[in-house]
Design brief:
By secondary structure, chain A is α/β, with parallel strands linked by helices. Chain A contains ten helices and 13 strands. Chain A folds into two domains: 168 residues, 3-Layer(aba) Sandwich (Rossmann fold), CATH 3.40.50; 123 residues, no CATH class. In chain A, the strands form three sheets. Chain A has a six-stranded mixed β-sheet with strand order 2-3-1-4-5-6, with helices on both faces. In chain A, strands 7, 9, 11, 12 and 13 form a five-stranded mixed β-sheet that branches. In chain A, strands 8-10 form a two-stranded antiparallel ribbon. With 110 residues, chain B is mostly helical. Chain B has one domain. Classes of the chains: A alpha/beta (352), B mainly alpha (110).
Chain lengths: 352, 110
C-alpha cells in the first residue's frame, strides 16, 4: 500500500524564539532553515505526528513588521513560503508580543489572500494584532508568556491537524479567536433565553452567558494635587481633536494609533488649524470650536493668571469610537510613559 | 486610557458624558460634562428645543414660529459668552476634583 503523503507545513518564528537573539537581533534579515527548529522541532513536529511535516522554518527580526518595512517583509515572506508549496502555515506562537503578533497576523492575511491555505497562529487575547487580523487566520488563545509554550503549541498543532484533515473546527471547542459571527437559528427566542439565564442567576444556579463581557481591574486613586499653581497638567482626549487634515490619519473608528501634537505657544485652538477625526458623534460642534472638546482657552487663561502652573506643551489624541479595550489599554500605557518622562503630574482626559 | 495613565502615578480627571462607562472601566475622578459632541461646550443647536419648552411652560402658552426664531437668535447671540462661562465652570469643577482627596471612584456632580 502506498505510504500516505504527509502534508507540508511552513513555520514562521521571530528572532527570539528561533534562538538568534533578543532585541539586538530584531533587525535580522529573512532567513530560512530546512525543517523544524526550536518549538517547531520540540513540540509542533511531534504533535503533528505522521499527518504533516514542517518542511521549512522562516525567521525574520521583529522590526521587519514595523510600519516602514511591513509591506516589503510580507512580500518577501510570501515569496519564500510559495517556494515550499505548503498545505498550511503555522505562525508563532507570539503570546502578547506586539511586533511578532503583527508579523504573524500579516503573514496570515497575505497567505489567505494569495495562497488560500489555512494559517494557525497563537496569541494572548490582548495582542493588538488580533483586532487587525483575526479574520484571516485561526488564532489559538495562548497565555501571555512562554511558560505555557508546550500546551499552547500542542493546541495549535491539534487545530492544524483538524484543518488539514478537513474536520469541522469551531472557536469554542478548538480554542481560537472567533473570526466572524456565525448566525444560527436557536430553538428559543432571545427573550426566552435571557429569561432562563436570569432565572438561573436569581436561583443561584449555574448559567452560561452568550456574550462574555470584559473584566476591568481597579487602580487606586492618586493623591490630590495640593498646589495647583505648581502643577503641570497635560491634555488627553479620545474625542479625536487633531491638526486640520488629520496628518497621522487616525482612524474615525477602531483607532489603531494615537497622535502627539504640540500646543506649545498656542493659546487658542482655531477651526482653521484643528478638527475632529472622530466618526462616532456629530462633529459640527467640535469642528466649529475645538475648545468644546479640549478646553485650552480657559486653561491658558488660568495658566497666565497663575491659577495652574503649566499646561504641558504636548497633547495626546485618539478616537474612542469602537476602539478595542486592548488598544485603549496600550495607548494609555504608552501615553502614560511619555507623560511620566516629561514630569507631568495631572491629566485632564476628555471623552466624547 | 485614563486608568492606565493613573496606574503610572499621574492623577487623571475623566471628563465625559457617559458616566457609567467610566465607572465600569474604572475611572477614579469623573466629571459629567454637558454632552457627547461638546463636553465643554453649550451650543445653541442642542439646547434650543429645551429652552423653548421651558419658556412655553413659564408663559403657559405655545410660542409662535416668529417667537421661536427670536428666542433662537437671542441664544445664538449670547452663545460665545455663555459657552465661555459654562466652560470655565466645568474646568473649575475639574480642577476642584484634582484637589479633592478620594478613597474610591467618585463622580463630581453639581
Amino acid at each position: 500500500m502506498a505510504k500516505k503523503k504527509k502534508f507540508r507545513i511552513v513555520h514562521y518564528l521571530n528572532n527570539f524564539f528561533s534562538g538568534f537573539g533578543g532585541e539586538e537581533a530584531a533587525n535580522m534579515e529573512l532567513k530560512v532553515i530546512e525543517g523544524p527548529i526550536k518549538v517547531g522541532k520540540m513540540v509542533f513536529q511531534p504533535a503533528l505526528g505522521e499527518t504533516a511535516e514542517i518542511v521549512a522554518t522562516i525567521v525574520r527580526g521583529d522590526n521587519g513588521w514595523t510600519t516602514k518595512f511591513i509591506e516589503k517583509t510580507t512580500e518577501q515572506v510570501i515569496s519564500l513560503i510559495k517556494k515550499y508549496n505548503p498545505d498550511l502555515v503555522i505562525a508563532g506562537p507570539a503570546f502578547n508580543a506586539g511586533r511578532y503578533g503583527i508579523g504573524c497576523g500579516a503573514i496570515g492575511k497575505a497567505v489567505k489572500e494569495e495562497l488560500g491555505i489555512p494559517v494557525v497562529a497563537g496569541m494572548y487575547y490582548e495582542n493588538p494584532a488580533i483586532d487587525l487580523y483575526k479574520q484571516y487566520s485561526y488564532i489559538v488563545r495562548t497565555s501571555d508568556n512562554a511558560l505555557t509554550t508546550k500546551d499552547d503549541a500542542e493546541e495549535m498543532a491539534a487545530l492544524a491537524v483538524k484543518l488539514l484533515s478537513g474536520q469541522e473546527v469551531l472557536p469554542d471547542q478548538d480554542n481560537y479567536i472567533p473570526r466572524f459571527r456565525r448566525n444560527y437559528f436557536a430553538g428559543k427566542t432571545g427573550a426566552e433565553r435571557a429569561y432562563e439565564i436570569l432565572d438561573n442567576k436569581l436561583a443561584g444556579k449555574p448559567r452560561k452567558t452568550e456574550y462574555p463581557m470584559p473584566e476591568f481591574d481597579r487602580v487606586a486613586p492618586s493623591e490630590p494635587i495640593h498646589d495647583l499653581s505648581k502643577v503641570t497638567v497635560a491634555l488627553v482626549t479620545s474625542g479625536g481633536i487633531v491638526p486640520k487634515g488629520n496628518p497621522d490619519r487616525i482612524e474615525s473608528s477602531s483607532a489603531q494609533k494615537f497622535g502627539q501634537y504640540s500646543i506649545g505657544g498656542i493659546d487658542r485652538l482655531t477651526a482653521e488649524a484643528f478638527q475632529t477625526a472622530h466618526g462616532g458623534y456629530d462633529p459640527t460642534y467640535a469642528n466649529a470650536d475645538p475648545h468644546r472638546v479640549l478646553p485650552l482657552d480657559i486653561l491658558r487663561d488660568m495658566e497666565k493668571s497663575g491659577i495652574i502652573g503649566k499646561i504641558h506643551d504636548l497633547y495626546y489624541s485618539t478616537v474612542g469610537n469602537g476602539t478595542s479595550v486592548g488598544n485603549s489599554k496600550r495607548f494609555g500605557e504608552e501615553i502614560g510613559k511619555l507623560l511620566v518622562a516629561a514630569g507631568v503630574q495631572a491629566v485632564i482626559m476628555t471623552s466624547t | 486610557m485614563a486608568k492606565e495613565i493613573e496606574r503610572q502615578g499621574i492623577l487623571v480627571v475623566h471628563c465625559c458624558s457617559i458616566v457609567p462607562i467610566s465607572m465600569t472601566v474604572g475611572g477614579n475622578r469623573i466629571i459629567p460634562t454637558t454632552g457627547i459632541p461638546h463636553p465643554f461646550g453649550d451650543p445653541t443647536e442642542t439646547k434650543i428645543k429645551d429652552v423653548i419648552k421651558e419658556k412655553e411652560t413659564e408663559l403657559n402658552k405655545k410660542l409662535s414660529e416668529s417667537e421661536k426664531t427670536e428666542l433662537e437668535k437671542k441664544l445664538k447671540a449670547e452663545e460665545p459668552e455663555r459657552e465661555l462661562r459654562v466652560r470655565r465652570e466645568y474646568v473649575e469643577a475639574t480642577l476642584k476634583a484634582m484637589q479633592t482627596h478620594i478613597d474610591q471612584q467618585t463622580v463630581f456632580s453639581e
